[in-house]
Amino acid sequence: QVQLVESGGGLVQPGGSLRLSCAASGIIISNNAMGWYRQAPGKEREWVARVTPVAYTNYAESVKGRFTISRDTVKNTVHLQMNALKPEDTAVYYCNTRDIWGQGTLVTVSS
Fold it and tell me: Of 48, 61, 32, which is closest to residue 107 (Cα–Cα)?
């Protein structure tokens, strides 16, 4: 059974940083494309970042240069380092692979 568990969300001031984690079980993350998505209140879920099995990464334009996706193959965990956060980054952030989703972790950017 594949399971993804996100953590690391919270309240942060504009300009601050957070690091999200996605712990995977039942799969080997380095054999799968792993992605982060987010859903802001009243909006549709949108793609944020992805890392492929060969460690290629790409990002939505709205986060490029501020967010970094990485993976720890020893801990089988994917991370999303978020810097220079803006109020519009406020959302529930979800980890994804194939058709599997985690439960999400809430990020609130507010002063």
Answer: 48
Tokens read off for 92: 């529930």
Percent composition of the chain: helix, strand, coil (DSSP 3-state, to 5): 5, 50, 45
- In the chain the first and final C-alpha atoms are separated, in Å, by 40
Query: What pLDDT is recorded for position 52?
Result: 97
Q: Let me know how long the chain is.
A: 111
Mean pLDDT of 28-32: 95
Tell how strand 10-12 and strand 105-109 pair up: parallel
Distance of CA 73 to the CA centre of its chain: 16
Q: Please, which pLDDT band fits residue 70 given cuts at 50, 70 and 90?
A: very high
Residue 34 forms beta bridges with which residues? 51
Neighbours of 98 (CB within 10 A): 10
CA–CA separation, 102 and 83 (whole Å):
22
Q: What is the mean pLDDT of the chain?
A: 97
Contact indicator for 90, 109 with CB cutoff of 8 Å: yes
